[in-house]
Amino acid sequence: MASSTKLSSLILFFACSLFIQGTLASIICEKLPASLCSFAIGSSGKRCVLENFKNEEGNLGYTCKTSEVVVEKLVGYIETDQCVSACGVDRDSVGISSDAFLTPEFTGSLCSSACYQNCPNIVDLYFNLAAGEGVFLPLLCEKHKSSPHRAMLELMSSSGGAAAVGPTDYDVEAPAPAPF
After folding, report:
1. Mean pLDDT throughout 57-79?
2. Where in the sequence is the signal peptide annotated (predicted)?
3. pLDDT at 84 over 80
4. Phi then psi dihedrals of residue 54, to 5 deg
5. Cα 9 from chain centroid?
6. What is the mean pLDDT of the chain?
7. Residues near 12 by Cβ (< 8 Å), separated by ≥ 6?
């Protein structure tokens, strides 16, 4: 009798896991609830973005749209709540800004091992955002660990059109980016 119960539980678990995998395999940004939109990647490989709009009553509402930004890895992926928390990001934010790097708390969360080593989607997004500002995220994280305020000062000086922060700017060896 006990083995029959175990077998039934195993079959139920297997059936549920197939259902969940089938459900998650097809992510269409426009069908995602606003609460899951940010930090999701559709089955098309394009990032989902949260946008706001005013409804007929003039109230602010949110909708999920497909962006033109393609992510070659992590197709059909929704970031976990644990990663959102560990990385210090907010699913309710509309758009992202490199200004977040100017706060030591955000950079500390993003560079923490809980985020940097375990949340490839968020790290990839902010890696690319930092690169657009001429900053190499692994070096920013390395500097932040030793001197958060100095890292912020160097970030501000590099973002204003000055030379990009790169491996020759520091006497430290650049850590390898997080595996994706």
Report:
1. 92
2. 1-25
3. yes
4. -105, 130
5. 35
6. 77
7. none
Give the strands of the sheet with 40-41, arranged side by side.
60-70, 46-54, 40-41, 77-78
Q: How many residues in total does the chain contain? A: 180
Strands (E), 15-80: 40-41, 46-54, 60-70, 77-78
Query: What does the block give as tokens for 120?
Result: 């490839």
Which residue reads 């809980």 in tokens?
114
Task: Give the tokens for residue 98.
Answer: 């490199």
* Range in 27-31, 45-49, 59-63 with the lowest mean pLDDT: 59-63
The H helix count followed by the E strand count for the chain is 8, 4
Global pTM reads 0.68
Q: Which residue has the higher pLDDT, 27 or 156?
A: 27
Helix crossing, 120-132 with 137-146: angle to 10°?
100
Q: Which amino acid is at 118?
A: N
119 Cβ neighbours under 8 A, 6+ residues apart: 79, 80, 83, 86, 87, 178
What is the mean predicted confidence (pLDDT) over 27-34?
96
Cβ neighbours of residue 125 closer than 8 Å, sequence gap 6 or more:
39, 47, 96
Residue 87 has pLDDT above 60, yes or no: yes
The phi, psi pair for 67, rounded to 5°, reads: -90, 180
